[in-house]
Amino acid sequence: MSAQPADPTCPVARTVDIVGDKWSLLIIRDAFDGIRRFNQFQRDLGIARNILAARLRDLVHAGILRVENATGGSAYQEYVLTDKGEDLFDLIVSLRQWGQAHAFAPGEPHSVLIDATTGEPVPRLSYTTPDGGRIQARQARVRKVGEP
Amino acid sequence: MSAQPADPTCPVARTVDIVGDKWSLLIIRDAFDGIRRFNQFQRDLGIARNILAARLRDLVHAGILRVENATGGSAYQEYVLTDKGEDLFDLIVSLRQWGQAHAFAPGEPHSVLIDATTGEPVPRLSYTTPDGGRIQARQARVRKVGEP
């Protein structure tokens, strides 16, 4: 698992090297859900404490989480998403939307993303360009570094 | 790494259980880039053959890739994204966009997503709802199963 992906110019590979791990992704999900303390993460994920400590340290090192002293004067430290971490929202949404569409049996209960301002479920989101266009896999290709 | 995430009703956790692994994500990226054969994946990723074989088998089992006989009568088998696999395009795009924004130094070369119909780079994509609205992390929350 420690090998460097072959192409160092690929943004997908760079991101995967930083967050492409089950526990890192679930910690980031939990952070978006408002979880902040080590023991809360530990209880929610059922993860071994040493693994959790290592993943939190890596996410802080990567600039995705930052450590804050808890509000209210308690001795606890809290882990909070940085702006760079908040920018992973689309990634968590895309994981969520694919799971909703493909990983549950019909009628099987699952959690739902809610618009906090209206209380209504967020409808299926899709990627659009700044001019409102949509992009599909079949119409996209990757231009490698050095290609014309 | 084999523990089940605590909440089986979370779509993020379901998806992460299926594709939340560095090699699986890079194999899916390669499949979108048109790579189809075992030896092509192996060469592109620099991955051990036994690990590649296991990941490909898991992705076929999950219904994300399917096995086809190669066109042109060759004896090779090819791995092709199913419709369910194609629906991971947003996930790969979100990994790519975050990497472009946060994982390269200014001016550092990286590959670019191209609109195949125009040859132009795809602009930064953002998630919009069907009525054209945007959703931000701060305005979203998750309603768990059983909550009113």
Q: What structural category characterises the helix and strand content of chain A?
A: alpha+beta
DSSP E strands of chain A, number: 5
Succession of helices and strands of chain A: HHHHEEHHEEE
- SS summary, helix count of chain A: 6
Order of strands, main sheet of chain A, comes to 1-2
As for the CATH topology of chain A, it is Arc Repressor Mutant, subunit A
CATH superfamily of chain A: Winged helix-like DNA-binding domain superfamily/Winged helix DNA-binding domain
Give the low-confidence spans of chain A: none
Major interchain interface with per-chain residue totals = A-B, 86 and 86 residues
Most strands sheet of chain A:
2 strands, antiparallel
CATH architectural label of chain A? Orthogonal Bundle
Radius of gyration of chain A, in angstroms, nearest whole number = 18 Å
Please give the oligomerization state of what you see: homodimer
What share of the residues of chain A does DSSP label as strand, in percent? 5-15%
Overall 3D shape of chain A: globular
Helix fraction of chain A, binned, reads 25-40%
Mean pLDDT metric of chain A: 90
Please specify the SSE layout and strand pairing.
The structure is a homodimer of 148-residue chains.
Chain A (H helix, E strand, L loop, with lengths): L10 H9 L2 H11 L5 H8 L3 H13 L3 E5 L7 E5 L1 H4 L2 H14 L9 E4 L10 E3 L11 E4 L5
Antiparallel strand pairs in A: 1-2
General description of the model:
Two copies of one chain form a homodimer. With 148 residues, chain A is α+β, with helices and mostly antiparallel strands. Chain A has one domain: Arc Repressor Mutant, subunit A (Orthogonal Bundle), CATH 1.10.10. Helix content of chain A is 40%, strand content 14%. Chain A has helices at 11-19, 22-32, 38-45, 49-61, 83-86, 89-102; strands at residues 65-69, 77-81, 112-115, 126-128, 140-143. The first copy, chain A, is globular and about 55 Å long. The two termini of chain A are 33 Å apart. The mean pLDDT of chain A is 90. Chains A and B meet through helix 1, helix 2, helix 3, helix 6 and strand 3 of A and helix 1, helix 2, helix 3, helix 6 and strand 3 of B. Strand 4 (126-128) of chain A pairs antiparallel with strand 4 of chain B, so a sheet runs across the interface.
